[in-house]
Amino acid sequence: MHKEFITNGNNALTIDLNQWKMSRNLSCKILEETANYFLIENDSGEQVEFLKSLVSSNKMSIAGNLLVLSEAQYLSHFISLRKVQNAKMNIQFEDNKNLIFQHREQILAKGAYYLLRPDFLSSGASHMGSFNYCLGALLDTFHCESPFYFQELAGFKKMYLVKLSGSVLSGVYSATFWSDDKGEFIYLTSDSHGPLPRPLFDTMKSFQGILNGSFIEIDYQDKAIENLLMDINNTELQHVLVNPNKLL
Question: Which 3 state secondary structure label does DSSP give 183?
């Protein structure tokens, strides 16, 4: 099932929910059986071992080769897989974030890439709480009219705010920017570079207001980032083939 959503940049993207959202159907196929376990598979094709003793203790039903789990057991066995998947995605993101930010057009063009939500993308301040945001929503702020773009800041050029934390009372902060000029992340703190151009409270409130969209959260983020990195590598390979002198 395809679902369309509107990005913060006012573009329409689609996401295939069958591909990127785990099935919530509690009926699972029994593939194999041992003395103590069933090997079961949900509608999304994911397989887990399930203790036979849980069937009777949770009053679950078996009809043919179908086991109907309770919602609690389904969450415990299948939804918990998201933690492992998200951990893989976060490792991939950390290892490749410079490359990813250099290819932001590809993220803004595809729903699954737009909705990636790595732990790295989190901001917050004391007395305000923290908030996490998706990659595409952040990259939609990367334009020269954005209030979070700085032509020059602390001696660096073409800077976009990526994440911000600190204390609104003291003004102490730690900020991460992406520099188009250098093609890398720049890290600034109040101790090393002085105050921000705008008060921390005002900056944080407006940053949160722009990024806190009600976007779909996808389940298979590890697969999404793998696909993104393959697309980026293919793009770079095509660029080299068209411009072979770049290798010299």
Answer: coil
User: What residue numbers bound the domain in which 111 lies?
Assistant: 84-229
User: Does residue 60 belong to any structural domain of this protein?
Assistant: no
Q: pTM of this prediction?
A: 0.88
Q: Is residue 141 part of a domain?
A: yes
Model pLDDT for residues 219-240, shown as the tens digit of each residue: 999 999 999 999 999 988 776 6
Q: How many domains does the chain have?
A: 1
Give residue for tokens 């939804």: 79
The answer to whether residues 210 and 141 touch, using CB atoms and an 8 Å cutoff, is: yes
Residue 14 lies inside a defined structural domain of this protein: no
CA distance 181 to 49: 51
Of 239, 242, 246, the C-alpha closest to 103 is: 239
Give me the pLDDT at residue 190, please. Answer: 94
116 within 8 A of 225, measured Cβ to Cβ: yes
